[in-house]
Each structure stands twice: as C-alpha cells, then as structure tokens.
Specification:
By secondary structure, the chain is α+β, with helices and mostly antiparallel strands. It has one domain (about 1-115, about 135-170): Peptide deformylase (Peptide Deformylase, Alpha-Beta Complex). It is about 30% helix and about 25% strand. The protein has helices spanning about 1-15, 45-60, 85-95, 155-170, 190-195, 200-205, and strands spanning about 65, 75-80, 100-110, 115-120, 130-135, 135-145, 150-155, 180-185. A five-stranded antiparallel beta sheet has the order 1-2-3-6-7, with helices on both faces. It has a three-stranded antiparallel beta sheet with strand order 4-5-8. Strand 4 (about 115-120) and strand 5 (about 130-135) form a beta hairpin. The radius of gyration is 17 Å and the shape is globular.
Length: about 210
C-alpha cells in the first residue's frame, strides 16, 4: 500500500502539472473496499499525497477525487466545489461553494427518506453521465488529514459529492446507483441534458423515473 502511495507521489512530483494518472473503470482498485487509513504514511508523505490528489482533481477538472481513483485503495478523498455560476442551477441543485477539504475514513448515513435526482459524471468513467437519486441530507463522520474528528450534517450538492466520493472507498461507482435509462454520452446532446438545472426534460425524453 505504501509503495503505491509513494509511486503516486513520485508521479505527481515529476509531472509538469503536478498531477497523477486517474485510473478508469475496470481497474481493480475501483472495485476494492479501501483499507482504512491508520498511519501507513508519514505526516510529510500524507501531506504530499493530499497535495497531488488536490492538483489532480482540479486539473481534471472535478469536484472530488478518492484515492482509489489513482489506483490506491486507501480510505482518503479530497473535495472542493466552486459552486454554480448560475443562480437557477444553484437554487435547483442546492449547490453552494464547498471549500477544499480532506476526508479520512469517511462514512455517511442518510438522515431521512428525502432523495433528489441529478446527473453525475465521474473522472474514472470518462465520456458518460447518468442520473443518480441520492439522499439530500447525510450525517458525515470520519476525520481530516490532521486527525481531527469530522461529525457533521451535509446537505444539497455537497452531500452528493460526499456520497459519490465515499462510495468510491467501498468499491462502488456512481453507475451502480444510476438510473441506467438516463445514461448519456458527454457529447452535444448529453451535455445539454446535464446542463439543465434538473433532469426533468431528460426523464421525459429518455423515459426514466425521478426520485
């Protein structure tokens, strides 16, 4: 495990952009249950790994990246979302800016039966997107990169990001939870579906239910 982490660190530090390769669906790390982080790396190594993950996520670009997406089945993820530039989208998706943060050994629990459906993509499933119904509010626990406890309620789009990235640590891809009739390539038409504030038009055109 540490050898893989050090390889990722080296890949990132050698890259002109400071990024590491993102593995794609079919890689075993994406289907493994991630090993809990319990100090496998030194504080300095962990800090550099987190930095490489952060730069890789931004360069992709994405709003989250889990260690398995770099081929490392370790329970670490980074999140950051600048939010929506459209007030209409921000309101429909409850999408507020999410400052950069690191999750170590995260777990989430839905707080109620309230679920919302939106298109999602994944940096490890390039070229496609699909609608996923997810809990609107979750209870998030775990720790940050400094070992401080995380215990909070997360809502809206930020809750979707938390669920998506935490699922990666359990070997689950968003496609496992998706409404497959909604699956669309990220071409002109698919981009139009995902650009809608909510997926009602896609649901009518492609005949799939919404939560």
């Amino acid at each position: 495990m540490r050898d893989v982490a050090l390889w990722i660190i080296e890949s990132g530090t050698r890259s002109p952009e400071g990024v590491a390769p993102i593995v794609q669906a079919g890689h075993p790390a994406l289907r493994a249950v991630a090993t809990p982080y319990d100090g496998q790396l030194s504080d300095e190594e962990l800090a550099v790994l987190v930095d490489v993950m952060h730069r890789t996520m931004r360069a992709a670009p994405g709003v989250g990246l889990a260690a398995p997406q770099l081929g490392l089945p370790l329970a670490l993820a980074v999140l950051e979302d600048p939010g929506s530039i459209s007030p209409e989208h921000a309101e429909a998706r409850e999408r507020e800016p999410l400052p950069f943060r690191v999750l170590v050994n995260p777990r989430y629990t839905p707080l109620d039966e309230d679920r919302v459906s939106f298109y999602e993509g994944c940096l490890s499933v390039v070229g496609y997107q699909a609608v996923v119904a997810r809990a609107r509010r979750v209870h998030l626990t775990g720790a940050d990169e400094h070992g401080a406890a995380v215990d909070e309620v997360v809502e809206g789009w930020s809750a979707r990001i938390v669920q998506h990235e935490t699922d990666h640590l359990g070997g689950t891809l968003y496609l496992d939870r998706a409404e497959l009739r909604s699956l669309a390539a990220t071409d002109e038409l698919g981009a139009r579906w995902s650009a809608e504030p909510s997926p009602e038009a896609a649901a009518r055109a492609l005949s799939f239910p919404l939560a």
